[in-house]
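Human: We require from you a protein record containing the residue sequence and its fold in token form, and nothing else.

Assistant:
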Amino acid sequence: MTNNALQDFAGKSVLVTGASRGIGRTIAKMLAARGATISAMGRSSEDLDSLRAEIGGTSLPVDLEDLAATRLAAEAAMPVDYLVNCAGMTILEPCLDVSIETFNRVLTINTLAPVILAQAYARDRIKRGVPGAIVNVSSDAAFMGIQDHLAYCASKAALDAVTRVLAVELGTNGIRVNSVNPHVTMTDMGRMAWSAPEKANPRLNRLPLGRFLETDEVAESVIFMLTHGARMVTGQSLRVDGGYSVMG
């Protein structure tokens, strides 16, 4: 099988959450360019409409904080061949100031919503007797303690744990589940957050490859995890971090 064939998604359908913007939007556009039909889920109807104008497919506006609405939207989106859980958010607060409401909101969107989407997807695949693949876009924050990121780090570590359990339980049905864990990525929000040299330079100095990630570099790893080339990869958390994790 050639490399091009491994990346061919013609005739395949993919549900991508967080597709309104950032990494999720890039994933959706790159998969569409490789032949996939995209069901794009996100909070902003306007952004989803502009994405659909670019790549076609289906728009699924839903606020993932509403878990009941998320379940209904996920079930209505089936069947799809693959699922990419990319939606995420954070609220930055010192650990002594984090409220239960903040923690619950971050955990709901970053961890519980992916569980609900994975359940809907896996139930449909099992009912049809067909294999599949899920990729959860996590973060290298799952492995670290980062100031003011208590809820975010916890939610992403939990998402990686969810990935491992799903891989174990769904593997006998031929459904693979993996996480991709990017370092700082230059989304619009990332550029704003890391534009100040005094903040960015200490982190950049620890990156062997010398720069932060672009969204397409995260998307390529996500797409690989969906392909036949990753057919024996499951339950993994792939750090896409420019070498940050290997620095002493």
